[in-house]
Specification:
300 residues; alpha+beta; Jelly Rolls; Arc Repressor Mutant, subunit A; five-stranded mixed beta sheet; five-stranded antiparallel beta sheet; 13 helices
Length: 300
Amino acid sequence: MSKIQKVKNVSDYSRYVGAADGHPWVCVIDFAKVSPVRHCLNNYSVYGIFFHDEADIDLEYGCGKYDYKKGTVICVAPGQIGGKEDNGERVNLTGWALLFHPDLLHGTPLEKSIKEYSFFDYRINEALHMTDEEHDVLVSLMRQIQDEIERKPDTVQNAIIVNYIGLVLNFCQRFYNRQFLTRKLENTDTLMKFDSLLRNYFDENRQLSFGLPSVQYCADKLYMSANYFGDLIKKMTGDTAGRYIRQYIIQRAKNELTTGASIAQVAYKLGFEYPQHLSKMFKQQTGMTPTAYCKSLRKR
């Protein structure tokens, strides 16, 4: 049984690695100043952004493992488990960690918008791999946050820190967008697999037992988190993964309707519980009802 350390507050982590406490809700760790450090497998109640300059560590994250190398950014959110179980080994690390408690964001715009940074729910094998320039940007922001934490507190300190954290998150989003583009060939392969997955799902009549395919189902079959899969498809096609699935379903519905099958027959064949559910999706995707579509076919 793995020993898991609870990181309820940022101080739980900073004290473990031997860093000084500077703020109750946020800490910045410069690993070069606290190394060597022991490994720890953590259950986080805080947000964390970690990256190392030189590392080759077999990390656990959720139910998987990952070989954590130079330039890799890992983001964790409250409720997640990550790290490596303490085996007594002490390792020398250089790099940075930013941890902040959700209470820091209370009453700020970031409190709501942080949910939009979907990379907090990516799997570890979907981590961000920075370029040297991107690395330098994050290091610069870490130093600025650290400098602010070390200042004497005043009425605007927390607002300044939250704005810096927002910058870190926006830069991470930009870097992820770059990564999606630079992996275009690999992502094109994923899109082809997505199409094949949908085609096989219906060809094998899985919809009759399990209903319409979901984004989560497709992501699982392609060994991705739903968030990463959704973001990848959006970058590749301009559409959400859910809309992509619905468009595929409606195209199959159109193919069936051209054979003369009734709307009810098509609906049940595609896995809809009721024909009106097909009609509603059809209207949303095409702007016309299945009945109107059938009439337009007869006019051709």
